[in-house]
Amino acid sequence: MQLFITHSSICILKKLNTKNFMSKFFLSKIQNENCQDYSFGSNKLIYFLGKNPDLVQEEFVGIADAKWNRKFKSCAKIQHLNMIKYNKNTVYTPCKKNEWYKKSIEEMPKTKDFIDEVLEKNKFKNKDSFTVYENNFICEKSLFNNFTSWFYQTFNSIFFKYKNLFNENNKISKNFFCERLTAIYFANQDIEIQNISNVDCFPKLF
Hints:
Elements: E1 2-7, H1 10-15, E2 22-26, H2 43-51, E3 60-65, H3 68-71, E4 90-93, E5 96-97, H4 100-107, H5 112-122, E6 131-132, E7 137-140, H6 141-158, H7 174-187, E8 192-195
Parallel strand pairs: 1-2, 1-3, 4-8
Antiparallel strand pairs: 3-7, 5-6
Helix pairs in contact: 2-6, 6-7
């Protein structure tokens, strides 16, 4: 397994005890031609991996917030995620939600036009099923690479049409805005979304 860990705080990254399967990425050090601002959060790393798929080497791979242990207390600790037996065609996440379309727009109404355009351009229809709501997930290598490649292309083709939304008056989170791409993509794949908070996922740890 391979886990990419990211955060905007170098102090938080340094404090996190890591194991061999974990790689830390300080957001400000990631160089992208677009998606440059650290306020894009983990989307900045996804964009980077979409352009550099050779960095993904193991059969199962994931992306995780460096504050995983604090945010997801009902899950296995981030240092133990390599102990889980993962299945193909499944995405494991502590951020599984249904009715993602409705919830996204309720949280940030100005995402609606963006979401609708991405759905239409990709001929995606699913707005109600379970999906990955935030960028904390693990899946098989091929699915991960397909997603990051799609994210990279979609960001470059659509995102900057909406860049004027990101001013101080609107108070829109670039991170949340771009995480809608994650929700859209996984909601419209023929896969299972597994809640990693479910103890049945990792019996070895309990």
